[in-house]
Amino acid sequence: MMNKENKKTYIEEMRKNFNSNSSVMIAQYQGLNVNELDKLRKELRDKGIKFKITKNRITKLAIKDTPVKDLEKFFIGPTAAALSSDPITTAKILTKFSKTNNKLKIIAGFMDGKVLDEKEVSIIATLPSLEEARAKIVGILASPAQKLLSILLAPGSKIANLARAKSLKK
User: Fold this and answer.
1) Would you say 11 and 55 are in contact if contact means Cβ atoms under 8 Å apart?
2) CA neighbor of 91 nearest in space, from 37, 129, 146
3) 64 phi and psi, to 5 degrees?
4) Which residues make Cβ contacts (< 8 Å) with residue 64, sequence separation at least 6?
């Protein structure tokens, strides 16, 4: 049991976490053992995502005056919240983990001021991450330059190949 001072500290910490992160994904973890939870936590932590196992009654108090207050109704049963500024990476990791371990159930999320249901979270998980999107854009922008370069160099290489072929015939 938490004493009154610990509860106040917990509420303030959770309130700060909910206020400072633009995305929250809520999952139920009933049936996961310590090793499975540690594996998930490590994967999330490596990407800068906080994974908090919550005390529902106290978390509902902490969430009241935050942008994510509409998530209050989802804090039922053994609940955990993944908090980050990158909803796509969070959704990808949680969705991937839930596919290999059906004991983790994503029940809701919050992104851009909107509450997401589990289907919307799984759709977000299919989007490219920021790094993937940047790589695609760079590839698209670099492609025309490579084509232009090959067109400009082609006549010179054709002449060189023709000259080489003529010299081999002699």
Assistant:
1) no
2) 129
3) -55, -45
4) 72
Tokens representing residue 164 in the block: 């080489």
Q: How far apart are CA 105 and CA 98, in angstroms?
A: 6
Distance CA 163, CA 54 (A): 76
Cα–Cα dist 78/53, whole Å: 8
The more confidently predicted of residues 139 and 37 is: 37
Structure tokens at 130: 């920021």
> What's the residue count for the chain?
170
| CATH fold of 4-127 | Alpha-Beta Plaits (3.30.70)
Question: Domain boundaries in the chain?
Answer: 4-127, 128-170
pLDDT in tens, 85-107: 989 999 999 999 999 988 999 99
Question: Does the structure show a pLDDT above 80 at 140?
Answer: no
Residues 107 and 130: their CA atoms lie apart, in Å, by: 24
Residue 104 φ/ψ, nearest 5 degrees:
-90, 120
Count Cα atoms within 13 angstroms, Cβ side, for 145: 5
Give yes or no for residue 170 having a pLDDT over 70. no
